Amino acid sequence: MKVQVIEYPLEKDWQMVYNICRSTMRKLPDEQYTPEFISTLKVSNTWKEKLLEARHSPIRRLHFTILYQDVPHWVHVHLVRHHIGNDWYVTTSRNDRQHEFDRNKATQDHLTTLIYHGNAESLINIIQKRLCNVVSKETRELAELTVKEILKTNPEFAKVLVKPCEYNRGICHELKSCGYFQKVR
Fold first, then answer.
1. Between 111 and 106, whose confidence is greater?
2. Helical H runs in 63-160?
3. 157 near 150, Cβ under 8 Å?
4. Quick one: CA torsion of 149, 153, 69, 107, rounded to 10 degrees?
5. pLDDT single digits (tens) 14-46
6. What is the largest CA-CA distance in the chain?
7. Which residue has the higher pLDDT, 41 or 53?
8. How far apart (Å, rounded) are the C-alpha atoms in residues 94 and 169?
9. Rounded Cα gap, residues 72 and 56, in angstroms
10. 151 contacts 139 by C-beta, under 8 angstroms
11. For all residues of the chain together, what is the average pLDDT?
12. pLDDT at res. 94
């Protein structure tokens, strides 16, 4: 399985998120929307981390596009179930559009390619859910690869792209805990 982050939040995106946050508190004067202000504002990594951990709505302004290749069909199905705030573009298996295999005879392990596009809040939800130890090993490995690639360009996501029980400080919300943490709800 291969993961490539194609688009990710840049400094200008964080600057806009910062302005959006300030505007919700009536703290943004009109003159600060000038291009000069936008290009000189530097949002601190500490602020970014705090905003991501708080999961406030402006993080939905941050977008990712991720290319997944050589993903077993049954693993891709785990990902595309996450639809709120996400778009998935999956390689077709139609017999009239591809000639690698017969869709009617294909096994669940045939490889597929998909592109994900979504906002930061939705991506955090997917990754947390798919890093959980109750998830299949292969799906968890794909989530781990995704985190590794995202952190190359956006290290501020390190504290939120973790197992849900880590994010929830040891509390598990699964119906049956894997026991990773002893503290269960």
1. 111
2. 73-80, 120-131, 137-153
3. yes
4. 50
5. 988 988 888 887 776 545 556 655 555 678 999
6. 62
7. 53
8. 45
9. 34
10. no
11. 88
12. 83
Phi, psi (5° rounding) for residue 63? -125, 150
| Residue whose pair of structure tokens reads 């130890």 in the numeric block | 133
**Which whole-number Å values give the CA distances from 11 to 22, 38, 158, 172, in the listed order?**
16, 10, 17, 34
Q: Which two tokens stand for residue 141?
A: 């490995």
Tokens read off for 139:
């799906």
3-class SS at 51? Answer: helix
Among residues 168, 67, 84, which one has the least CA distance to residue 126?
84
Helix then strand count (H, E) for the chain reads 7, 4
Q: Which three-class secondary structure state does DSSP give residue 56?
A: coil
Q: Which of 7-11, 33-37, 170-174 is predicted least confidently?
A: 33-37
Percent of the chain past pLDDT 90, that is, above it, reads: 58
| Residue 36, both tokens | 């000069």
> Residue 88, class by beta-carbon neighbours within 10 Å (0-12 exposed, 13-18 middle, 19+ buried)?
middle
pTM value is 0.87
Q: Is 119 in a helix, a strand, or coil?
A: strand
